[in-house]
Write a structure and sequence with these properties.
Helix 2 packs across helix 8 and helix 5 runs parallel beside helix 6. Strands 3-2-1-4-5-6-7 form a seven-stranded parallel β-sheet, sandwiched between helices. The chain contains eight helices and seven strands; from the N terminus they run αβαβαβαβαβαβααβ. The longest helix has 29 residues. The chain is an alpha/beta fold and 297 residues long. The chain has a single domain, classed as NAD(P)-binding Rossmann-like Domain (Rossmann fold, 3-Layer(aba) Sandwich). It is globular and about 80 Å long. It binds NADP nicotinamide-adenine-dinucleotide phosphate and D-gluconic acid. D-gluconic acid (GCO) binds next to loops. GO terms for molecular function: oxidoreductase activity.
Length: 297
């Protein structure tokens, strides 16, 4: 008995302690409900979102409860965007602002804070591409791409971060690219900018994580939008563009992505559901980055 007691008692105590610990952890896990993905009461600025990927992401945010703010360089495009949101039953606030201008961006953020509210969610979506072989590209053209695709996310982020710090939370999503990881002919400036944007993402996460600000990237694969339209143009004989065929072969999903494919990942990264996800780039690419490619026949 004594011998048994000597072994059983400590074992019993150890088991009791373990069960208490297990109970502690199970009791403290909150139920996952759709509320985690809600953006109710949040103000979201999506740059360059009159159409394309930005428009799809902003529409998903609105469906999740957020108030949408967007900008574009030209008034006609802002008006077009406002009409498109209205058609979907979304009340959006649109402003003219060139994201490469620090002055215009600071004025935009001040105006949004006054007219709509302090920004909780920023998506750095506005972007351009110039497909020119590197040795034919002028330094001015290279700088222009870096300016919109890398300098602008820096300018807009630094304009919204102080408001997020005051609010005690914030989400920044940078729209990166396959070219944040891969190169190809003619896109040197774009790849340099999107690679830099991946590192800016990690740095914002590192520098402002302690203020409950999460900065993550989304790396879309090849998505059918006006930006990629030249790569999908039908050939004179009616056949598909060689680049179009190349992308289908390179993508395990065997199709181009659509702007809608980015909606779920964007809502996740904008919501409380991702509060411990920081400094990542979530590639939404139908599997391109995972795939070595088809063996030649
Ligand atoms: P898009 O169809 O060309 O739309 C880009 C938007 O950005 C347009 O509304 C454009 O306005 C705006 N914009 C450009 N420069 C601006 C500036 N200086 N200030 C304010 N707005 C500006 O492109 P998208 O395909 O939707 O791409 C959106 C983002 O995703 C870009 O960052 C792009 O690089 C990235 N991306 C796209 C793909 C893809 O396959 N489509 C893949 C990976 C990443 P304007 O029309 O007035 O120029
Ligand atoms: C290109 C394309 C790409 C895509 C996208 C890929 O010419 O290769 O335009 O750069 O737009 O960024 O993720």
């Amino acid at each position: 008995m004594y011998d048994n007691g000597r072994f059983l008692l400590p074992l019993g105590i150890v088991m009791d302690k373990k069960i208490q610990e297990i109970n502690y952890y199970t009791n403290n896990i909150k139920l996952i409900t759709m509320v985690n993905f809600s953006l109710e009461g949040k103000v979201a600025l999506v740059t360059g979102a009159s159409y394309g990927i930005g428009f799809a992401i902003a529409s998903a945010f609105a469906a999740a409860g957020a108030t949408i703010v967007f900008n574009d360089i030209k008034q006609e495009l802002v008006d077009k965007g406002l009409a498109a949101y209205q058609e979907k039953g979304i009340k959006a606030f649109g402003y003219v602002c060139d994201v490469t201008s620090e002055e215009q961006v600071n004025a935009l953020v001040a105006q949004v804070e006054k007219e709509v509210g302090v920004i909780d969610i920023l998506v750095n979506n506005a972007g351009i591409i110039k497909r020119i072989p590197m040795c034919d590209m002028s330094a001015a053209e290279f700088r222009q791409v870096i300016d919109v695709d890398l300098n602008a996310p820096f300018i807009v982020s630094k304009a919204v971060i102080p408001g997020m710090i005051k609010k005690g939370h914030g989400k920044i999503i940078n729209i990166c690219s396959m070219m944040s990881e891969l190169g190809r002919e003619t896109v040197s400036a774009y790849a340099a900018a999107k690679g830099g944007l991946k590192m800016l993402t990690r740095n914002i996460a590192s520098e402002y994580g302690e203020y409950n600000i999460q900065c993550n990237g989304i790396g879309p694969g090849y998505i059918a939008t006006p930006q990629t339209a030249p790569l999908r143009e039908l050939q004179a004989d009616g056949s598909r563009h060689p680049f179009d065929q190349f992308i289908i072969a390179k993508t395990p999903a065997a199709r181009w992505g659509t702007p809608e494919d980015l909606q779920g990942p964007a809502v996740f990264l904008a919501s409380d559901a991702s509060d411990f996800v920081n400094g990542h780039v979530l590639y939404v690419d139908g599997g391109i980055l995972a795939y070595i490619g088809k063996q030649p026949k």
